[in-house]
């Protein structure tokens, strides 16, 4: 096979391949061994699925319903290109008895449209809007695996990890924000064995690229837009998008300064910044002024003023996005926008307080919600692997043997009222 991402090479016997894959799937689920004709991309996905404790007999969970689903879809960037998806794929899906599906970057299905009969059959396995089809929840499947590996992929019949899904074949491609490169989700075509053709993979790739081009046209940098865009969650050094469209990776100290200045649009005095940034009281104002002078050179002379120190343009940040969603009660949306703690290596006192406050607020909301998938995402993340409270909530919502074993280990290490990591 020339392309390992294509499910079937031209001329292959689909029926025979299905039988061989079923035998291979049975062997893997029984003994963990991968044999031919399983493709490397599928084998790697099966191993990730098993590592996430997905059972071949699992079913999809519907996380978003009714008003929450509608609100989340309305604010999602891919809502802006749904007319394009329908134009390019709608007729193909309906005429071919297929489904057009779009998921977010966490593998949650946002739209599922197409042939009425196919939708009805897919509904029996919860392939519906609002359901979670991430690879960590539903094993190998095209939309979930596409966002997991961040590239287009086909999944044919018994290549699916969940047995209930094995009558289907699908192809999906990731879609990115054209300005920042951030993964937004994936577009998918799901149907019968006929989709196991190189053309279907090329088709969804072309549709995804068209969507990215459309997003770039819909949201060009406005002529008068003077805002800074700051990415600070889950990374030690901030990524800054300037009004001119340049992407800059900032030093750790400059990252901290921008977080604090964005937090205080009214400005901060030198003494206030010293208090916010340094635990060591021996650090002199001269040191701070030197850092601010370097930051001014990075930003440009007109974006940072002094007396007090403040930014002359608005700042949009992923930190603010999570806080805003959490404050409005959109817990799922907040969790999906949280890639990790704020500047995790920063020891600046004010940054540490913001970091702890955001993590505390989000984990408390997750525990109160009790959604096992959201709790599992936090518990299996590096910042949540020792979080006893979240593991207790996860064990109450999903008492599987691996979860109970991890909870017992944490109880022994920390005690019933032990600390948790942020």
UniProtKB/TrEMBL annotation:
Record's superkingdom? Bacteria
Q: Which residues form a coiled coil?
A: none
What InterPro entries would the database entry show? GAF, GAF-like_dom_sf, OmpR/PhoB-type_DNA-bd, Sig_transdc_resp-reg_C-effctor, WH-like_DNA-bd_sf
Which terms does the record give in the GO molecular function aspect? Answer: DNA binding
Per UniProt, the keywords (alphabetical) are: DNA-binding, Transcription, Transcription regulation
Give the OmpR/PhoB-type domain ranges. Answer: 245-311
* UniProt keyword Glycoprotein present: no
Q: Name one GO biological process term.
A: phosphorelay signal transduction system
Protein name, UniProt field: GAF domain-containing protein
Q: Which organism is it from?
A: Streptomyces tabacisoli
């Amino acid at each position: 096979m020339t392309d390992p991402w294509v499910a079937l090479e031209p001329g292959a016997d689909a029926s025979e391949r299905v039988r061989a894959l079923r035998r291979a799937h049975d062997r893997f689920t029984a003994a963990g061994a991968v044999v031919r004709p399983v493709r490397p991309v599928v084998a790697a996905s099966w191993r990730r699925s098993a590592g996430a404790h997905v059972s071949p007999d699992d079913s999809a969970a519907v996380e978003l319903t009714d008003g929450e689903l509608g609100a989340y879809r309305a604010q999602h960037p891919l809502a802006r290109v749904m007319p394009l998806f329908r134009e390019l794929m709608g007729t193909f899906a309906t005429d071919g008895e297929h489904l057009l599906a779009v998921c977010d970057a966490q593998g949650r299905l946002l739209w599922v449209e197409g042939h009425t009969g196919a939708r009805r059959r897919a509904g029996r396995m919860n392939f519906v809007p609002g359901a979670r089809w991430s690879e960590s929840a539903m094993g190998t499947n095209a939309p979930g695996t596409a966002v997991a590996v961040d590239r287009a992929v086909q999944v044919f019949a018994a290549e699916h990890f969940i047995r209930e899904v094995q009558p289907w074949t699908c192809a999906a491609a990731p879609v990115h924000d054209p300005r920042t490169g951030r993964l937004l989700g994936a577009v998918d075509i799901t149907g019968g064995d006929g989709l196991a053709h190189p053309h279907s993979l090329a088709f969804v790739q072309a549709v995804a690229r068209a969507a990215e081009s459309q997003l770039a046209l819909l949201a060009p940098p406005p002529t008068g837009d003077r805002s800074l865009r700051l990415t600070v969650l889950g990374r030690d050094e901030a990524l800054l998008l300037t009004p001119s469209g340049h992407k800059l990776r900032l030093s750790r100290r400059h990252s901290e300064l921008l977080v604090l200045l964005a937090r205080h649009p009214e400005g901060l005095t030198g003494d206030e910044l010293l208090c916010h940034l340094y635990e060591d009281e021996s650090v002199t104002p001269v040191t701070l002024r030197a850092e601010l002078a370097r930051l001014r050179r990075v930003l440009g002379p007109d974006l940072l003023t002094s007396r007090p120190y403040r930014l002359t343009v608005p700042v949009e940040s992923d930190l603010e996005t999570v806080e805003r969603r959490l404050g409005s009660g959109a817990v799922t949306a907040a969790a999906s926008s949280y890639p990790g703690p704020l500047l995790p290596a920063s020891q600046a006192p004010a940054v540490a307080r913001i970091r702890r406050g955001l993590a505390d607020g989000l984990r408390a909301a997750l525990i109160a919600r009790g959604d096992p998938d959201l709790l599992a995402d936090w518990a299996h993340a590096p910042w949540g692997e020792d979080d006893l409270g979240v593991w207790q909530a996860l064990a109450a919502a999903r008492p599987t043997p691996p979860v109970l074993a991890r909870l017992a280990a944490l109880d022994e290490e920390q005690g019933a009222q032990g600390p948790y990591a942020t």
